[in-house]
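hey all, quick one before standup. I had two proteins in the batch that finished overnight and I want to keep them in one place so we stop losing track of which output belongs to which input. First protein below, input sequence then structure tokens straight from the run.
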Amino acid sequence: MDFTEKTTKKETIFEGKIVDLSVHDVTLPDGRSSKREVINHSGAVAVVAVTPEGKIVMVKQYRKPLEKPLVEIPAGKLEGTDSPEETAARELKEETGYTAGRLQKIASFYTSPGFADEIVHLYEAFELKAGEPETEEDEFIELMEVSVKEADELIQREEIHDAKTMYAVQYVKTIPGQR
């Protein structure tokens, strides 16, 4: 079966700094019509960084849509012509001060494919070197380094409550010696 929905009309409702919102009139595979609200996002990166001591590098920051702080792995939006790998290196440095001697892509995944096209590229950082964070002027971030056990506890307390970070914690558990 062909599942394709053909867009017959597209109306842009909002263009923002982070996302754009459009409404699409579509023809469904069976010929009926419907509407789809679509959020367009340039994409993002997230970085799994584990210190030589076995601690996962994380940041705590307030998330306005949730009205609470969350503990997350370093992440950020793709901008301009920067590649996902360049963006991962930049975000790791900006948010944590760490630089990576090498980055390796783990996976890419969509965050909410029912209404958004945001894709997150997940990288693992190797050969970490500590430094000073270079946060943006509107970012208030607390650097954290947590063990896998502590990360599991933060998940249970819903302080880690986003998919990319929960994925990252599970990924770290697959690294020999990191349970």
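OK second protein, same deal, sequence then tokens:
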Amino acid sequence: MGKEIERKFLVTGEFKHLAVKKIRITQGYLSIDPARIIRLRVSGNRAILSVKSPLNDTGFSRNEWEFEIPVPAAREILEVCLPGRIEKTRYIIPSGRHNFEVDLFHRKNRGLCIAEIELSDEDEVFEKPDWLGEEVTGKSEFYNVNLL
């Protein structure tokens, strides 16, 4: 079991030229119950099944279990996921000692752009690039599960 501690921000400035990697992602959900979110993510030749516990009181962290599964099986499972899928392009952008993962959403969420940074603890200090906008950590309307 791992602990996921992340902060989320809307993106308001140019960022693509800073990216060191670009990944196309498709994800679906088998459960969207806040007590146990089960997500399937396929990106290239990799598929990950994730089980997430509820967020803690700060809205920053939760327990998370991740399991790599064969991509052909993942593509079949995507067909039986709950209605709606998330399609996005993720840009990896180094910033100080961290990387931001900037997700540019497609389909019904076209134009939405959210940056996430994973931290080692909730009080960790990090550099905030000038292309970051409003912090949306803990705002449920920006959880991927609510963008289906």
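Flagging for whoever picks this up: DSSP finds one helix and nine strands in the chain. Strands lie at 2-11, 21-33, 36-43, 46-52, 61-69, 86-95, 98-105, 113-118, 132-135.
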